[in-house]
Each structure stands twice: as structure tokens, then as C-alpha cells.
Amino acid sequence: MCISNLKKIGLTIVLLLSIAACDSLGDAQTAYDQKDFSNALNIWQSLAEKGNAIAQFKLGRLYHKGEGVEQDFNKAIHWYQLAADQGNLKAQYNLALIYDNGEGIPEDNSTAAHWFRLAAEQGDADAQFNLALMYSEGEGVEKDDEEAARWYRKAAEQGLDSAQYNLAIMYNTGEGVALDYVEAARWYRMAADQGDAWAQFNLGILYDDGLGVTKDYAEAARWYRKAAEQGDADAQHNLAELYYKGEGSPLDAEKSAKWLRQADQRGLAKTQYNPNVMYNSGKGVIQDDTEAIRWYKKAAEQGDTDAQFEMATIYANGNDEVKDFIKAYKWYQIASSNGHLTAAKARDTVAEKLSPEEIEIAQELAKQWVENNSAVK
């Protein structure tokens, strides 16, 4: 009977202590929410020293973020570690981040992977994604695409759009999983529906090419447009091409030019070639040799061989304001050196209009350009 009473008394004491701890945690959280970091610190410090995992995590986060205290990664690690060892998921995840990013300490991918794994096994989607990323890149663990796909799927099934996108990429490329465009389209769509611009663009490509889905230019244009409106230059370029060809929507050269101009802001060579064609032909814009050269030059300087050839052609055959046979020879020579099949013949035609001295100047200009841009692909 006494033993039973002692058990009851002991249980009552434990319950009272737990209730008191919960009340204190609530008070600390209220203080924290009100930006009263000093009061929150005092309460969490007291509870943390008594072994409360939640308080240990909260205290670690104060030191991690420098809220109410001087930022101190070593103290953050100390308190996170105590909470993480008790299985606190958030502490495990934040501890992993510190080691992964090398915050205040040397970067340690192996330790980061250990803590990401423990949090991932408790079902944390962000931890699952980061662990998958480490397997994908071979950081802190041996590279393993199958293991990466396994963890991406766990996070993707919880609705994490970045995991859905990366899993779709794996199905799209056959890395870690069997190549499967239908599955790729399914996961792209999930991420795309959440607003992921890259997923929207890649889903557009699948509809454009008829991979994993029925070929449908209208659907391709719809997804390209969603990504394009978020500033994705590749989507802007592809949408412009559909407008230019009248695929998926009525032919509209003006809209095509509009999207290409927006894509140009990202500095991609392929987005800069088509506007030159428009200004050269007058499709969607007023015909303008000078403006065409300006666009061609952007692409040409990045190594686009077709742009180099077309720019040379405008210099050779354009209006009096832009005609320049030396520059035409120079760019034909550059295009020829980059493998353009008809540039050499066009260069030789232009050479007939130049003196030997002018040809020598043009050749030297071409040589200098090639030497200065040898890294351009």
C-alpha cells in the first residue's frame, strides 16, 4: 500500500513538473514573439539546464540567430547538440545546416549528412531533400543517385516542390531511376502547379516535344508563359519561337519580339539571335539594319556562329549607314573559324572589294577576336 502511494506521489510530482515546464515554455514563447528576447532567454536557459530538449533547441536558435545575445555558433552547436541527442527534429536539422554551411566552424559535410539523416528519418521534408542533394552530389556521403531519388521521393510525396522538380529531372534523364517521361511529366506538373518556374518550363518542353504527354503546342505555350512571366529566359525564348511560328497560338511576330527582348535581359546568346532576324526582316518590328547588328553582336560575341555570319552579311550588303567590308570580312572569318559552312566563300567574295592592306587589317581583327574569346563555346 505504501509502495503504491509512493508511486502515485512520484507520478504526481512528475506531472506537476511537466505542467510547470509547459507553462514556462509557453511564457518564454510569448516573450519571444513579443521580441522580449531577454526574458525568453532566461526561461529557456533555466529549462535547458534541467535537460528540456525544446528549451535547449530554442536556446540554441537564439545563439544561432543572435537574438537577444551575441551570435555564437559554438554555443548554438552546444545546445542544438543536447536537444538533437534527445531526438529533437528541429535541432537535428539546424545542427546539420551549421555543419553543411560551415557557419562559424569548418564545413563538415559528413556530420551534416548524419544530422540531416536523423531529421529525415523523422519525416522532415527539408532534411530529406538536403540529404538527397548530398547523395546526388556526393557531398558527405558516397554519390548514389538511387539513394538520392529515394529521399527526393519521400520529400516530394510531402509536397516539397524543389524535391518534386529534382525527382522529375531524374526521371527525365534516367539518373537513379529508369528513364520515364510519363513520371517526369507527373512530378514536373506537381511542382509547376506550385509555381516552380523551372518545372513549368520543363513541362512545356515535354508538351513541345511530345515526351510523356501528347504533343500539344497550346499546352507547351501555356506552361512556357507561366515560367516566362516569372522571368525565366529559356521559357521566354521558347514562347517567342511558338509565337513566331504560329504554333499553339496564332502567329504573332510582335509578341515574339516582345518576349525575346525580355529574354535578352538575361544575356543568353540563343535569346539574342532571333530578334536580329526580326529586325533584319522587319517581322514584328520595323526593319532596321543598325538594330539588327546590335542584336546579332550580342549573340556573336558569345560565340553564336549563325549570328556572326548574319552580322557579317549585313555589314556586306546592308544600307549605307552600316556597310563596312572590313567588318564583314572580319566576322565571316570568325564564323568560318567556328565551322560555318558558307562563311569562307562569303569572306572571299567580300575580299574582292578590299585592298590587300584592308584584308590584312580585317584578318588581324579576326585573329585578335578569336584569341580574346577562345573560351567561348
> Main beta sheet, described?
none
Alpha plus pi helix count: 20
| Strand/helix succession | HHHHHHHHHHHHHHHHHHHH
Q: Helix proportion of residues, in percent?
A: over 70%
Report the strand count.
0
**What is the CA-CA span between the terminal residues?**
87 Å
What's the pLDDT, averaged over the residues? 84
* Strand residue content: under 5%
Radius of gyration: 31 Å
Low-confidence segments: 1-17, 268-287
Could you say which overall geometry the principal axes of the C-alpha atoms support? elongated
Structural class: mainly alpha
Would you spell out the secondary-structure blueprint of this structure?
Blueprint: H1 2-33, H2 37-49, H3 53-65, H4 73-85, H5 89-101, H6 109-121, H7 125-137, H8 145-157, H9 161-173, H10 181-193, H11 197-209, H12 217-228, H13 233-245, H14 253-264, H15 269-281, H16 289-301, H17 305-317, H18 325-337, H19 343-351, H20 356-372
Q: What does this entry look like structurally?
A:
The protein has helices at 2-33, 37-49, 53-65, 73-85, 89-101, 109-121, 125-137, 145-157, 161-173, 181-193, 197-209, 217-228, 233-245, 253-264, 269-281, 289-301, 305-317, 325-337, 343-351, 356-372. It is mainly alpha-helical and 377 residues long. The protein is elongated. It starts with a helix and ends in a 5-residue tail after the last helix.
